[in-house]
Amino acid sequence: MASLGEPTLQQAQAHPQQQALFCPLALLPDGWQRNVLLRWDDTGRLIEVSAGSSCGTARQAAGPVIAGMPNLHSHAFQRAMAGLTEVMGSPSDSFWSWRKLMYRFAQRLQPEHLEAIARHLYIEMLKAGYTSVCEFHYLHHAPGGLPYADRAELALRLMQAAADVGIGMTLLPVLYQYGGFGGQPSSGEQARFISSPDELLALRERLLQALPENPMRRYGVAPHSLRAVSPQGLEELVIGLRRQRGGHDAPVHIHIAEQWREIQDCLAWCGQRPVQLLLSLQEVDGRWCLIHATHMDQAEYQALAASGAVVGLCPTTEANLGDGIIDAGQLLHSRTPWGIGSDSHIAINPRSELRLLEYGQRLHHRRRNVLASEAAPATADRLFIQAVAGGAAACGRAVAGLAVGQQADFVILDGDDVNLADRSPAQLLSALVFCEHDGQPIRDVHVGGRRVVSAGQHPLQDQARRAYRDTMADLLKE
Predict the structure, then answer these.
(1) Phi-psi region of 409 (alpha: psi -120 to 50; beta: other; left: phi over 0)
(2) Which of 55, 59, 400, 453 has the highest count of CB atoms within 10 angstroms of its CB?
(3) Neighbours of 424 (CB within 10 A)
(4) Is the domain of 16 the same as that of 161?
């Protein structure tokens, strides 16, 4: 692991001489605008977003400019599993059989493996247009469950990888107590995950001491799920978080209502459905992010909308695991904030998540443009703008698009891409999201005003690729 004192990509790169960009065409939170001037300060925050401007001395963008997309749900180590679980183990293959395979894979991971996987993954995210990531981090201990000498060893590996490549990070240390509803004992395969509320809060405090929060990083917590955390443990975690630095408004993420069996087990245990139970246990508000929330009844949709919490949708992973399809139309109609995540990373592409979200609704309802509306008839535009806003809320960071006060996180599209060239603003995002491209239609990516991807390339990509291949060779050895 590189020393935390060594320069990161952000520290090593000088600020651009011109902290400004002239965009002939840019997507702002209220839609496309022409001749937009972006200016940002030394902290990377936007101080001017002016449409109808002149270029002046500012550098000109080589293509249309859109906001960077927050990735609100990531299990970094699972990227190394992609493609390894696609052979039928039994006629009843499901999320639960996949989970057993994931547990076995997790037992082999060493700290250097995790850091190499995360570094390569985060570069892939940047090149795809994700500029922030919420890392749902539950791999805490050494194989067998013994703590490392530094309990934050693996968390610091993830933070180092993010800092090295220049992606914004919201780290969410996960509380995992039990093996099922009602305090069922955990299995030996879960030993690397298990902790108490006090231990989890001590881990967050260690991270705050080692790497204090700044515009590029934030620390929240994540009770894994209601099946893995008791009501008392959840209460202790939330109360303890409020007492810590920055804890009063820190993000709280939780897996919920992902699988039908989870619904049935929860009903059998307490007579309530998972989202219903959570809302009865906690004062859920806008700092909460409910990951998946796939299976809700009408009352849960209404109560969740009233809470202000964000729903975290991960369509490619949910499809891969056979979770089911959320009623996204009802979600949008109720104005519930939502965002997207790549979760298990079988796909690392925000456009794939948005496309599958809409296509799942089309298959279910047997019609097209299900998630458009009369006020927002362009499906891709509506989905993209809402996903940025919801993802920013889940991150707990100022990354909600191209607006004054937000971080200068933006993507410059390849204006010469054959599928984007000559498109009108009304057609551009539709071509980006609903057309499969040969390669990435992305030219440059900026995070906090710093260019981290240039002409589709990241400066650390070759080094990271070699380390990732070495890691995979080691993990896949018989």
Answers:
(1) beta
(2) 453
(3) 9
(4) no
Using one digit for the tens of pLDDT, what is the confidence trace for 180-217? Answer: 999 999 988 889 999 999 999 999 999 999 999 999 99
Same domain, 76 and 43: no
Nearest to 385 by CA among 342, 324, 433: 433
Per-residue tokens: 454: 């240039």
- The domain total for the chain is 2
Domain span including residue 30: 9-67+400-462
Of the residues 365, 395, 425, which one is the last residue of a structural domain?
395
Model confidence pLDDT, tens digit, residues 104-160: 778 889 999 999 999 999 999 999 999 999 999 999 999 989 999 999 999 999 999
Is the same domain home to 133 and 191?
Answer: yes
Quick one: 306 and 406 in the same domain? no
The pLDDT value recorded for residue 96 is: 56
Q: Are 240 and 250 in contact (CB under 8 A)?
A: no
Split at pLDDT 50, 70, 90, the class of 85 is confident
If you search the block for the tokens 């270029």, which residue do you land on? 55
Domain identity same for 373 and 268: yes
Q: Is 3 domain-assigned?
A: no
- 133, 170, 189 from 129: Cα distances, Å: 11, 17, 35
Residues 219 and 165 in one domain: yes
pLDDT number for residue 106: 80
CATH code at 32? 2.30.40.10
> What confidence tens digit (pLDDT) does each residue in 412-434 have?
999 999 999 999 999 999 999 99
Q: Is residue 476 included in any domain, yes or no?
A: no
Distance, CA of 178 to CA of 226 (rounded, Å): 10
On whether both 276 and 317 belong to a single domain, the answer is yes
Confidence of residue 476 (pLDDT cuts 50, 70, 90): confident
Distance CA 384, CA 106 (A): 33
474 part of a folded domain: no
Say whether 134 sits in a helix, a strand or coil. strand
* Catalytically annotated residues: 292, 343
Separation between Cα atoms, residue 370 and residue 150, nearest integer Å: 50
Report yes or no on 273 lying in a domain: yes
The pTM for the full model equals: 0.94
Provide the 10 A C-beta neighbour count for residue 98.
18
